[in-house]
Amino acid sequence: MRTYFIDYCQIWIPPxxxxxxxxxxxxxxxxxxxTLFSDDTKLGKCMCLSGMKLHLxxxxxxxxxxxDNIKQVFEAVKKVYVLHKEFWNFDEVKPSRLDFACNLPFFxxxxxxxxxxxxDENVRKYYYGCESDQNLSGLSVGERGNHSIxxxxxxxxxxxxxxEDKRVKTNNYTRLEYKVGRQxxxxxxxxxLLKDMRKYETVFPKDIISSLRNLKDLSFDDxxxxxxxxxxxxxxxxxxxxxxxxxxxxxxxxxxxxxxxx
Length: 262
Hints:
By secondary structure, this protein is of the alpha+beta class. The protein has two domains: 5-98, Alpha-Beta Plaits, CATH 3.30.70; 102-260, no CATH class. It is built from five helices and eleven strands. The protein has helices spanning 22-37, 66-84, 182-187, 206-215, 233-238, and strands at residues 5-13, 44-47, 52-57, 94-104, 113-117, 122-128, 136-141, 149-155, 174-181, 216-220, 251-257. Strands 2-3-1-4-9-8-7-6-11 form a nine-stranded antiparallel sheet. Strands 5-10 form a two-stranded antiparallel ribbon. Helix 1 (22-37) runs antiparallel to helix 2 (66-84). The protein starts with a strand and ends in a 5-residue tail after the last strand.
């Protein structure tokens, strides 16, 4: 069974009515980056010269528990409020992008899968080397943007990002990820302000995940074997997948109709 989590969160906080010079805002920005991330840019960063844009990357989050992740988002915003509430309008805190993801112990070049989308006609497939099923390492449906949602599925074994992640002890899995823009959050998922997500601190957002999967989805045929439990580290470590011919070859890209990608 899938375990969903936040792999990226972008928060927008509009400025207050006060006027602040650039030097003062830069000092505040540096203080927030130190307080929240210990100046580790792989965890996150804030930018606050015109309003504040707060970026929380996947490695900022402590677990693969979606409700816990949402709690961490609120905690981060609260820390900023306590430190510097005079600079921004905290009544209008908005998520401007959220990436919802899960890890799967299956591989695109090994296991059968089905793909669907209610709006997209084509899928983009990524290969290492020639365009053969064995060399398939990822795919994407849709474009990333403010008014859109993009589904990406990629073989973590061959991901350019191999940085250590405290939440998982292996890269032997496939990551499925929904990159959800601001207007989709607001119009399709009912998330206008950050406070609209408060209820999900204690209740799993089943409605959000269901809506995302209805819009776009990829599912492996073998997922049915795990309907009674969530995937474990052991499942990921023991997953067996075909290797590509050569991961050192240049990546090639192919766009094909979704109907042909089954």
